[in-house]
Structures are given as C-alpha cells and as structure tokens.
C-alpha cells in the first residue's frame, strides 16, 4: 500500500486534539496576558507533556524493575549468585542494552517525521528496518555472551564469579534478542502517542515477572539459572504484548503488514542508528567499568554486590528523566 494516497487525508483524533489545544493556547496571547497568561499557558503545556510523560515514566520504571526484582531474588540465593547476576545484568546486558537502545533511538526521529508528514505506513516500514538492523547487531554481539567467562577472567574477575557469570550470560541470550524487537516497537507506538498501551503492557510484564520469579526461585528451586530465565520470559511478554496490539488492529494507519520496502535503504539506517548507539553506549560505559574494577578488590563478591545494588537504584531513578526526554521528543 502506498503512503501517498488516501491515508494522508485521514486524521488521528488524539493528535488533532493536542494540536488544537496548543493552537488555542497561542492564539489568545493578548487575552491571556490580561488574566494570568503565563500560568494558563504553563498549565496547558504541562497537561500536554504529562499526557505522554506520565505513562512513559511508569513503563520505563516497570521495565527496569524487572532487573531490580531479579537482583533481589538472586540476593536470597547467596553472595556469589548475586555477584554473577549483577555482573551479567550491569556489565554484559548493560552494554548490550545501551547500544541497542541508542540504535533504536534513530527510530524516534524517522517515525516522528513520517507521522507529522502523514506518511503513516512509513512508520511500519521504518520499524521493520530497525528490526532487521538490530537483529543483525544482536548476532554480531553474541560472542559477548558466549565467551563471557574467559573475558571476565581476562579482566581480573575471580574464577568463581567469572564461571558462574558465563553460565548466567548464556541463559540470558533470549533476553538479548528481545531488545531488537521491543525497543523499535516502543518507539513506533510512542511516536503515535500510544504511551498508555506501553504502560499497560509493562504492568502485565511486571506482574508476570514477579510471579515467575517466585515460582522458579522458591517453588521449583531452579537457583541462579531460574533467576536468569525469568528475565527472558518477562521481556518476551513485553515484545509479544506490544506486537499483538500492533497487528490486531491497534495501529490501522501505521501498520499495513510486512513489506519488502523494509530491505531498502538499510545502509543509511545503519549509519544513523550506529551513531546514536555509540553515543549512548559511551555515556553508559563508565558505570560498567566501575563494577569491573570492583571485582579486583578483596572480598570481590561482596564489593560487587554492594556497588551493583547502588548503581541499580541510580539507574532506576534515571528512568524518570529519560521519560521526560521521550516526552520532549
């Protein structure tokens, strides 16, 4: 289906409502100045912003809470198990998460431009291109998970922590591939102001994660492997929840099915995505280096546990300003 036909004439009610509210707020400047104009404009703009930011904060905090809950359950297993989960979550998955999240951020610009230009079906094409590029990147990053144990030993981590971390990393490979689909889906829906959908799916995923974590750790007693496996299940619940909404009629204008057009212009998309990915990855890496350096201290397991918990709380809090950035975008 072409993006230039009758779709351009169709409207998105929520966007029109927000746009008309903004127009009304700026057309009456003279009247506003007479009776609290600044306060009125601030109130109108705040409502528009919080309509996006509120659900975005919840969805980001809920998504990151999956890692927090996993670390909490691992802490009940022992210091070594918590250290292994912490290193994999904060260093290996953290590097992976930052790179793929940055690469998916290119979709915000492209989808925002296409949506504003009423090229609605191009949003689906851009999302499919992002799936392709991020999936290839996931394949290229696989050695990071497969050879985590010898790499950590080379970086000075203890033998026990390195070997258990390597085992946990292999079990988190499904989580690794879920990022390639979840991040583009999130930005695809966010650009259409469907932040409430993302928030509801994040809530379902969080509840599933709590239930599965309790089941695997306490009832089935699967240990650190079960703790790692819970993240795979919960993140794929996020992916299938968002994807199910898209293909089941939630985005009739912007999702018209799979298209071969997604395979065109991939190199330009790669260049735009790679620049965003490297930028975000470099900003994140000094946190990861601190954890690796901690592994060289005495009582490495306890030191890694303490620092990773502090950094997890810090990253948890960071989800709030990140949601505001998303709302601004």
Automatic annotation (TrEMBL):
Membrane topology term reads: Multi-pass membrane protein
For this protein, the parts annotated as crossing the membrane are 48-70, 82-110, 131-152, 164-185, 197-218, 233-254
Enumerate the UniProt keywords alphabetically. Answer: Membrane, Transmembrane, Transmembrane helix, Transport
GO molecular function (one): xenobiotic transmembrane transporter activity
Superkingdom of source: Eukaryota
Gene Ontology biological-process annotations? xenobiotic detoxification by transmembrane export across the plasma membrane
The record's listing under CDD domains reads: MATE_eukaryotic
A Gene Ontology cellular component where this protein is annotated is: membrane
| Locations listed in the record | Membrane
Presence of keyword Hydrolase: no
Keyword DNA-binding appears in the UniProt entry: no
The family database entries (InterPro entries) matched by this protein are listed as:
MATE_euk, MATE_fam
What does the similarity note say? Belongs to the multi antimicrobial extrusion (MATE) (TC 2.A.66.1) family.
Q: What is this protein called?
A: Protein DETOXIFICATION
- Report the source organism: Acer yangbiense
